[in-house]
Amino acid sequence: MSGSLERLIYMANQIARNLATDADPVAATAQHIRSFWDPRMRAMILAHLAEGGSGLDPTSRAALLRLREAA
Amino acid sequence: MGYEFQPDFGTPASRADVDVTLSIDGRSVTVPAGTTVMRAAAEAGLAIPKLCATDTLKPFGSCRLCLVEVEGARGTPASCTTPVAEAMVVRTDSDRLRRLRRGVMELYLTDHPADCSACAEGDCEVLAQADAAGLRTVRYGPGADHQCEAMDVSNPYFDFDPAKCIVCSRCVRACDEIQGTFALTIDGRGFGSKVAAGLPSDDFLSSECVSCGACVQACPTGALQERSVKELGMPDRAIVTTCGYCGVGCTFRAEMQGEQLVRMVPWKDGKANRGHSCVKGRFAWGYANHKERILNPMIRASIDEPWREVSWGEAFAHAASELKRIQATYGRLSIGGITSSRCTNEETFLVQKLVRAGFQNNNVDTCARVCHSPTGYGLKTTLGTSAGTQDFDSVEQCDVMMVIGANPTDGHPVFASRMKQRLRQGAKLIVIDPRRIDLVRAPHVEAAHHLPLRPGTNVAVLTAMAHVVITEGLADEAFVRARCDWDAYCDWAAFVADARHSPEALAPVTLVDPPALRAAARLYATGGNAAIYYGLGVTEHSQGSSAVIALANLAMATGNFGRPGVGVNPLRGQNNVQGSCDMGSFPHELSGYRHIADPALRALFEADWGVPLDPEPGLRIPNMLDAAVDGAFKALYVQGEDILQSDPNTKHVAAGLAAMECVIVHDLFLNETANYAHIFLPGSTFLEKDGTFVNAERRIQPVRKVMAPLNGFEDWQVTQGLANALGLGWTYTHPSEIMDEIARLTPTFAGVSFAKLDELGSIQWPCNDAAPEGTPVMHVDSFVRGKGRFVVTEYIPTDEKTGPRYPMLLTTGRILSQYNVGAQTRRTANTVWHPEDLLEIHPHDAEQHGLKEGDWAKLASRSGETTLRVTVTDRVAPGVVYTTFHHPATQANVVTTEYSDWATSCPEYKVTAVQVSPSNGPTEWQEDYEALTERSRRISAEAAE
Q: Which CATH number does B158-287 carry?
């Protein structure tokens, strides 16, 4: 990993993979990121999502879309 | 307060709940059945002479000095081995007894130095007992004796003088019964009997002795005596305080001569250590007066400049000015702080308050980020609170111990001794660890099962164990139905029962022998009270939180919660890492593990502090460093933490620190992080401050100032100085006021105060109206969250993969004699045991790589490379290498990566793919770093005005 954005993408995907067995993985991933990431980190990855969100897995992408809607 | 020895009742207390009444010297005495006559007399204030007896050891009956008369009994039985009986009539003094005792003491004195210095100073009981026996002269002439035997001065902290030894075996028994090392013996017979350490060719230093000091404390003469007592003389006062090293939290008497510490002696009434100690807490306190301590504040404009000493006022004003400038330039969120797990709760609370109320953001984190943050997440998710479930005493009722990812004999040695005591009594042991840790096979201790798993596969192993529990019908369904969420349990049980989670199916991943894993799971589920003890080998993984959750799942499924002898027990690393987490050091939560987003909670703090609080979570340490590299995070206040040495991927940490405009290091020494600092605020040791620590069993313990801070201020005062330079107007005059504030704002600490701590000695949180004297065992009738929550933990392999370039796995840990980054212990004589970090490598791998014992090896990973010497040992498996991180010259974390726990960002220190190859010297990084350190530690000759 190098660079903050690359790390954030990795983190989001890692969270989603580990919450895949939750009853609602998308909601759980979104809630985890909302609860533990600071505003700048969230803003960075949402900006990346707005630019296409390359590298994001389907669950983490869906979770970030949900976060964006809630913002 | 004058100096007094700790009371000694001669033999241990009986725990029987039936009382016996007897007469001793005409006095009616009632004691629990099983009490010895010696102890019953001592408790009644009647001291019976003794030499071989002490209340920390089982009765021995060798010195024949404690003889008494018992009405109706023949002879004169030894009171130390004679249990009380109902209506027994005992006489402790008579002409016959005095004559017998004089005879015994007369013989002892024939072989005791006439000029015994310890006797003269009151640290040797021989002369005192001779006086007590009324002995005036010795009838026997000079003869053979042991007065010319050479002293053993090999140990850096204590000497053994055979001339003073009375061969009472107290040292041998202490090593056996208390410490469990069995390093000492009585060699020879009759007149030739002598205390020996290890083999005949050994001295104390070369033997298996671990320098815990139990023998020194047990010795009734000056035969085994601290060298500091020899050099300084006996103490004149003693203050009870709490050790500043590991999370066991041993209570010590700091024994002083004025402001000079003479020795640290474990306090028998300490509830965490029960009178025991290890080499660090007992002896390794010399760093407190080390010449490299920095006592004056210093500043510099750039890290390329030498430091310049300034006044405290100038340092505070400069720091505040820089922090304000940076926030004005880069924004409110551009600065943050790191609290210390070595400092007190009160100091830690103030640092997080400074960040939240002063910096007006939540960019505060603590070293638990890199150790037990997954414990907080995992246990809160499943049980409802972020702490271990038991007290240490609980181990005495444990039938099965499961130790996973912990090396207690090195990391938590005093508790390890208690574990070994219980194991010697017959409890069974399961060890899950890639290495064959010492506990696997110790004197009179052998693990029933050692599962040497591949590093990084904890979750797979625990899921396989759960598979055995469920598919073989070993779950405690009655407990689960009563105490846990049944639907979540059913989902979890179905998950783990899947054939893909069987030990056989997962063996290719875990490398654990399936029959051994099945046997271990059966033992854990059916062996009686089963307790899990775990450490950083669980948490420091990409699935650290999942592994903690898996442990809680396993314990819930087998009904191992809510009573003594069971539970899930994290062995916390640093002295106050539990407390620093309790105090709200994480960026998303306030004290008591409550999320900052809760408006009602914020309102409570805002009303108390008089400032609005940011509702958004702040940055974790790794994210602070990322943001610094990005140019968004510009200033950091670090209290008592050395992130450059302790955090992963050293080059990235260095890049982050170098990118900041103001790094404030508040510490005892110019540590590695200070190489990148612009302001240095001198810290105070645990001996120089008042406050509290919380140990691994949630025990809040007093830390008491035994000497004035050499730098002039306790650490909480320094933080207050900085806060007030920022205009916060704090007016604390004593740490007790800070604890009052903590109690006011934190439900789990609601009943805690310094006055109550003085009264009770220590308190285990929660302490509130429901539990006014604290809570030794948690989750007794229900879990904190209500119903225990099972969570499915799918094993996901780490992304740190071995391959042709990096074919081996590195895992890291610690060693007994050194502590964390070594800033304290490297500045003591403990370096005699561990002068450098070594790379453990299996003999097969060593041969493959052309390495021999003591050779230099290059250790390279995707992050970086370093060199260190190798030691060849089969305690690591083929394909796995191991090292410690205590020495900055090695910089083991140059090699570790930024992979981290999915939930908490705790680094994956335990799994790094590496290449090992022969080397002939330091790497370029090591050479550059050494030059940087030398340059960075220059202090200008220009003095403060």
A: 3.30.70.20
